[in-house]
Amino acid sequence: MSALPLLDYQRYGRQMILDGIGFPGQVKLRKASVAVVGAGGLGCPALQYLCAAGIGRIGIIDHDRVELSNLQRQILHTEETIGLHKAESAARALKSMNSDVLLDVQTVAVVADNARELLAPYDILLDCTDNVPTRYLLSDTAVALGKPLVSGAAQKFEGQLSVFNYGANGPCYRCLYPTPPPRETVGSCAELGIFGVVTGTIGNLQALETIKIILGLHDETPALLIFSALGTPPFRSIKLRSKKESCLACGKSPRIPSSTDYVQFCGGPAPDWVSLGQSSGKANQRAKVEELRQAIESGVELSIIDVRPPTEFGICQLPGSRNIPLKALLEDPKKCIDSGTEPVYVVCRLGNDSQIAAKALRSQIEGEITVKDVIGGLQAWSKEIDPSFPIY
Predict the structure, then answer these.
(1) CA end-to-end span of the chain, whole Å?
(2) Catalytic site residues?
(3) Is residue 155 located within the same domain as residue 280?
(4) Which residues of this UniProt protein bind ATP (predicted)?
(5) I need a labelling partner for 330 at 20 to 30 A (CA). Which of 40, 104, 270, 338 fits?
(6) Which residues contribute to the annotated binding site for Zn(2+)?
(7) What share of the chain is helix, strand, coil (3-state, %, to 5)?
(8) 171 lies in which domain range?
(9) Mean pLDDT over residues 30-48, rounded?
């Protein structure tokens, strides 16, 4: 009796004839189990190629739901699956591609209380998330469970890839980053932007590294692969040091308590920029979008300053507004105010940078000029005043 179903010889024949894979390698893939945490920009391509390669069991763990803004890079999701959990949407796509693979769908967030239980059944773990607290949690969990962690990251036009806790002296994430970066320096794809092909590149490479580990083709050399979509050459590899003996997670004296609050360790929860931009303030300092609309329609002289970056200003803008990026405004606020007494309204995307800009302008004002920032920014304008105004 064959160790592989008859149709597997046809499905996987093109990779089975490769030296280093063969029949034994395909059996290894079929018997392997992999957990992919995050079914987004990185997770989708990783899942697609792991499933196509014939990994026997794949865990898909993601508590988030599909949104329209995901479709630019999260290739397993479609317009029809908007609103579904990403794990369920991804599983639907994978089942239509390879119905023989066992898929474990988990629509929960990985947190300290459930990480070990969720991830223990799998041979290899993939970090396809986009936040620092979860990176530390997954790395610590991989160390505790004695499993390799294939970690990817992507932002703007750049991506990174590493395999942690693999081999005799492979470092963990904490070995490289004993302390997290300051919370204010960490941005998200929504704030900074992301080129979809970058997540596809890194996600595919995560699948590649995983398959190499399963097949025994990985040389176990610790390295950090850096990818720049606009770089020449686009790839460069940095050799990493072995694990640190002093590392709190994988060193000689591990002391990471299971009750660790990873969010607080990384500086607290990520700011809710939408809510912060909509918060009310002093009546003479913040204006609702309705007030701005009335001011525009009244025909009175006024100045609208848009402090978004030029690229974003080029996407959409209010009629009559002028673009002074926040950085330029802060360098010399006084130069940004026209002579006169007309009111000044400051806008941005969500209503956060405009608060900073308006405060700087008020500090330089001499006379009767009123400076207000617009609550909720251009997103609020679109939702409350003009539904045809683009939201991005």
Answers:
(1) 56
(2) 189, 348
(3) no
(4) 41, 62, 69-73, 86, 130-131
(5) 270
(6) 172, 175, 247, 250
(7) 40, 15, 45
(8) 32-270
(9) 98
Quote the CA–CA distance of 9 and 310 in Å, as a whole number. Answer: 55
Give the Å distances, CA to CA, from 209 to 7, 160, 202, 287: 26, 13, 10, 52
Ramachandran assignment for 365, one of left (phi > 0), alpha (psi -120 to 50 degrees), beta (any other): beta
Instruction: Name every residue whose Cβ is closer than 8 Å to that of residue 387 and which is 6 or more positions away in sequence.
Output: none
pLDDT in tens, 149-184: 999 999 999 999 999 999 989 999 999 999 998 877
Position of tokens 């001499």? 366
**Closest by CA position to 44, among listed 1, 76, 72:** 76
Is residue 263 a part of any domain in this protein? yes
Could you tell me which residues are annotated as the binding site?
Answer: 41, 62, 69-73, 86, 130-131, 172, 175, 247, 250
Percent of the chain with pLDDT over 90: 84
Name the pLDDT band for 280 (thresholds 50, 70, 90).
Answer: low
Average pLDDT value for residue range 10-33: 97
Residue among 153, 151, 149, 152 at smallest CA distance from 167? 149
